[in-house]
Each structure stands twice: as structure tokens, then as C-alpha cells.
Amino acid sequence: MRIILFAGKGGVGKTSVAAATGIRAAEMGHRTLIMSLDIAHSLSDIFDLEKELLDQNKGRVIRVDKKLWIQELDISEEMEKNWGSIHKYISTLLNTTGLDGILAEELAILPGMEEVSLLLYINEYARKKKYDLMILDCAPTGESLRFISIPTTLEWYMKKLFKLEKTLAKYVRPVAKRIYDVPLPGDDYFETIEYLFERLKGVDQLLVDPEMTSVRLVTNPEKIVLKETQRAFMYFYLYKMNVDGIIVNRILPEDIKDSYFESWRNNQRKYTEQAEKYFNPIPTFHVNLFKEEILGYKSLKRLADQIYEKRNPLDRFFEGKPYSLVKEDGEYRLMMTLPFIEKEDVQLNKVSDELIVRVGSFRRHVLLPRHVAALKKVKAEYKDQHLTIRFTGEDHGKGEEA
Ligand SMILES: Nc1ncnc2c1ncn2[C@@H]1O[C@H](COP(=O)(O)OP(=O)(O)OP(=O)(O)O)[C@@H](O)[C@H]1O
Ligand SMILES: [Mg+2]
Fold first, then answer.
1. How many domains does the chain divide into?
2. Residue of the CA atom closest to atom 2 of ligand 1
3. Is 297 a domain residue?
4. Distance (Å, whole) CA 137 – CA 18
5. What is the Å distance from ligand 2's center to 36 Cα?
6. pLDDT given at position 240
7. What is the largest distance, in Å, between two alpha-carbon atoms of the chain?
8. Measuring from atom 18 of ligand 1, which residue has the nearest CA?
């Protein structure tokens, strides 16, 4: 089984590329599901599905071909199915603060709930081995990064906070009821969280397993888009996910000789070359700007032909190593590939058995093996796009910050 994520800046062509990949994979005989997290839901538009069929199957899996299915998550359906008591508690909480009921209900949809719902499906389908390929058509970069940070954040929350909260609620509830008007979460709230967590177990492993999951970044040969692609690439590496291809979309075809486009063509050439250089040895795939919008089966197939030629989209086009932990010369070395950043952007903290790596506003908790965490001396160095953290023993000084 394979999972392929298509990510990138808004409007670069993620949904088109995801759909084209799905069509190709299904035609090659793989049972393929394309899932979308994008609230705009352009996936069903691309496949030109009847409105009635969509309305009847809101949020559910719809078959579009013999071996091809699509699913566009619907947050209101998910609320009912997965979030019942959590949603109820939060909206009651907001309600007591004087918010109007409907507004409170809306606001109680917390950021991340949709993403967690998607993770639940991925895990369920993976456990049941329902599909050979699951394609994720991500929302624009920022949001898809939130999606990939969720498994580690949840693990951290369950490990560090959940038990504490639960114990607190148990003791505080009877007292607080008398003093405050604010409701505290009931047992059902905690049960729902525990149940959710149970169903999410293992999904983080699926996502960081390079045999299983690949990220393909869609980009355009333009300065600002490319910049964002580099940033996204670094964050995916930070979360230990393997990027196995860069799709450079919307390249003006060579036979466009019109002088009006000359500057466009020159710049595109420059940025296409730059993309290759930046991401080397990860392969880049080039796609032309089509004569018209990419709509319907036929043009999607042409798009797939341009990207993959004769290749199977399920192949792994590259296998990098974002992380490694080795023991050498009596010390442990944790190496992380973190390209495209400045040394000053990285902040490190070690708190008991966790290493917290901060890059900009993103934070990754790396749980260290116990014997590594026990070592008191920590030294970090950022060089040639690699962060190396050395752990050595004996010295019982304080862990230092880099
Ligand atoms: N190579 C191309 N040639 C012509 N049109 C293209 C090409 N790639 C994408 N398009 C068109 O550009 C528009 C945006 O593409 P698409 O919806 O795939 O982007 P997206 O990255 O998913 O956008 P969003 O971030 O809004 O989800 C669509 O109308 C699509 O048909
Ligand atoms: Mg899209």
C-alpha cells in the first residue's frame, strides 16, 4: 500500500496533479482513492460529478471509475461522527461566555479537527487494506503543514497533558460547580478523546515510513512560489516525511514564440533550472501550461502522461533520510537534514526525554531513546544544511541550548 501527498502553494495545480495521478494509477490496475481536505472541494468539479450524486454522498467515498474512488471530507458530517461530545463541550463552554448558540457551535470547530478526521480515515483504510494507493490532495501549504504536525502533537498531548487534565477535572469538577458557572468537561469528553486516540494509533508511523508514504511538491517556475516550495520541503523533512518528487507545473511550451511572453519564458527557464538545482537529487517533473483549464478525464490523462511518462506513479522516485541516529566514537549523533534555513532560525531545547526543535513557528518534539536522553551533555551544530546534535555522557552539567 502507498500514500502519496500532493502539497504546495495555493493554485499551483495540486488538485489537477492529484487527480491525474489517481487516474493513471487506477488505469494501471491499482485500487486508488483520492481524498481531499480542501474545503473548496474542486476534486468533484474536476471529475464533473452530478450534483445529486454529491449531495447524496456528502463526505463519503464516491466511485468514479472501476478502480478509482474520491472522498471529500465534510466537516459537519465529521462533527457528528467523530467529535460528538468534544464539540458539545466546547460549544457549551463558549455558550456560557455569552456567545449565541449557533455561533458557539461554529466556533467550536477547532482547527485541526478536519485534519484529524482525515487521519482517522487513512488509518482505517490502511488497517482494512481497502486501497493500494491513497492520494491526499492537500490544502495550500500552511494548512497541510498543520496536518502533518498533528500526529506528533497529539502524541505529545496524550503523553504529557491528557492524564493531568483528566485527573484535574475529576477533582475540580465538584468544587468548581459550586463556585463557577463554567462547565468542566465530563467523562464522555475524555472517553471520546481516548477513543479517537486509539483509532489514530499507528498513523504517524505510516506517514513517516518512506516505503509507504511519499510527499510530492507541486510548484510553478516563479520566484515566490519556489521559495514557498523550499520552505515546505524543509518542514516536511522536519516532520521526517520523505519527499520523492517535485512537479514544476505551468511551464510555457517551447513553441510559444510570441515576444509578449519572452520575459516570462526566460524567467521560467531560470526558475526551472533553479528548482532542479535546489532539490537535486530529488527528481523534478516538468509539466507544460495547457491550452486551457485542465478539466475532465481526457486532459487529466494527458497531464498524467506528461508527469510520469511510462512510469508507475506508485514507484518511489527518491528515498532520502531526513533523520538518522548513530553511535560513533562513544557519542550519539542525531542528524537532521534541514535545508534552506539560516542557523539562527533553529532553536533547540532538551526537556527530560524530549528534544524540541523549533524552526520558525513550527515545533517538533523528538522523543529520544531513554539511554540517549539520559546523556547530559548536548551540543548542536548546523552546517551544510544538516543539523547535528551530539549527546555525550559522564558530564552531569545542564543540557544546553543552541
Ligand atoms: N498545466 C496547467 N495548464 C493549464 N491549466 C492548469 C495547469 N495546471 C493547473 N491548471 C488550472 O489551474 C487551476 C488551479 O489548479 P488546481 O485546482 O489543480 O490547483 P490547486 O493547487 O489545487 O489550487 P488550490 O490551492 O486552490 O487547491 C485549475 O483551473 C486548473 O485547471
Ligand atoms: Mg486544490
1. 2
2. 289
3. yes
4. 6
5. 8
6. 84
7. 78
8. 13
Residue 314 domain-assigned (yes or no): no
In terms of residue numbers, what domain contains 14?
1-307
What span, in angstroms and rounded, lies between the C-alpha atoms of 341 and 142? 17
Can you tell me which atom of ligand 1 is nearest the CA of 292?
A: 4
45 and 158 share a domain? yes
Q: Which helix (H) or strand (E) holds 96?
A: helix 84-96
The ligand minimizing its distance to the Cα of 228 is: 1
Ligand 1 atom nearest to 218, measured from its CA: 21
Residue 283, pLDDT above cutoff 90? yes
- Regarding whether 266 and 147 lie in a shared domain, the answer is yes
Q: What whole-number percentage of the chain has pLDDT above 90?
A: 35
Query: Cα torsion for 87, 91, 93, 99, to the nearest 10°?
Result: 170
The closest-lying atom of ligand 1 relative to the alpha carbon of residue 38 is: 27
Asked which of 95-99, 101-105, 178-182, 385-389 is least confident by mean pLDDT, the reply is: 178-182
274 domain-assigned = yes
Q: Give kind and range of the element (H or E) at residue 374.
A: none
Report the pocket of ligand 1 as residue ranges, CB < 6 Å: 10-16, 38, 40, 42, 140, 249-250, 287, 289-290, 293-294
Distances (CA, A) of 300 to 21, 174, 195, 266, 293: 8, 60, 40, 27, 10
pLDDT of 199 reads 80
* Atom of ligand 1 lying closest to residue 10 CA: 25
CA of 116 to the centre of ligand 1 (A): 26
Residue 232 near residue 148 (C-beta atoms within 8 A)? no
**Residues 129, 247 within the same domain:** yes
Q: Looking at residue 8, which CATH number applies to its domain?
A: 3.40.50.300
Q: Is 315 part of any domain?
A: no
